[in-house]
Amino acid sequence: MPLSAECHCHGERQRLLPRPAGERVGVRGMPERDQQLTAFARTLRRQQTDAEIALWKKLRNRQLQSVKFRRQFVIGTYVADFYAPEIGLVIELDGSQHEEQIEADSARTAFFQRQGCRVVRFWDNDVLTNLEAVLEAIWLEVRNSPHPNPLPSGARE
Predict the structure, then answer these.
(1) Which domain holds residue 62?
(2) Residue 8: inside a domain, yes or no?
């Protein structure tokens, strides 16, 4: 049961401000801000919600239509809960705090869409109580995705 509004942030997962001009570069040539966002994503991977754990068990290791999903993946200035880069699909799980941050979630969704991603949102409660229906909705999104390596025009399938 996808939500009508799109995108996500868990409490402290707020949109970060754009990188200021002349920002210092940290280790490995990455701007310090990007290093901080990557470290934050690692922390989120270690502190997953029950819904994220349940869904990840079903998405990991190409279990759904052989599509590779990543969890807590950095896209621009946001961390997507789950992301399938081959097909540009972002899956966001929303807890009760999202009822109060519709505008922030809409901005997040708009950002992902500007990056060429499709966004599907589910309530945590739906994942925990009706996982099969959530997986079916994701399966339909995956099935209806354009092929990541389409044949050239005029080539046979």
Answers:
(1) 50-143
(2) no
Look at the chain and report how many structural domains it folds into.
1
Single out the residue of 114, 111, 126, 36 nearest to residue 80, CA to CA. Answer: 111
Q: Is 74 exposed, middle or buried (0-12, 13-18, 19+ CB in 10 A)?
A: middle
Query: Rounded to an integer, what distance in angstroms lies between the CA atom of residue 143 and that of residue 8?
Result: 23
Can you give the pTM of this predicted structure? 0.72
Q: How far apart are CA 132 and CA 60, in angstroms?
A: 16
Contact call for residues 16 and 39 (beta carbons, < 8 A): no
Per-residue model confidence as pLDDT tens digits over 72-118: 999 988 889 999 999 999 999 998 765 668 888 899 999 999 999 99
**Structure confidence at residue 153 as a pLDDT band (50, 70, 90):** low
Query: Which residues are CB-neighbours of 70 under 8 A, at least 6 positions away?
Result: 82, 83, 84, 85
Spatial CA neighbour of 49 closest among 96, 106, 102, 111: 96
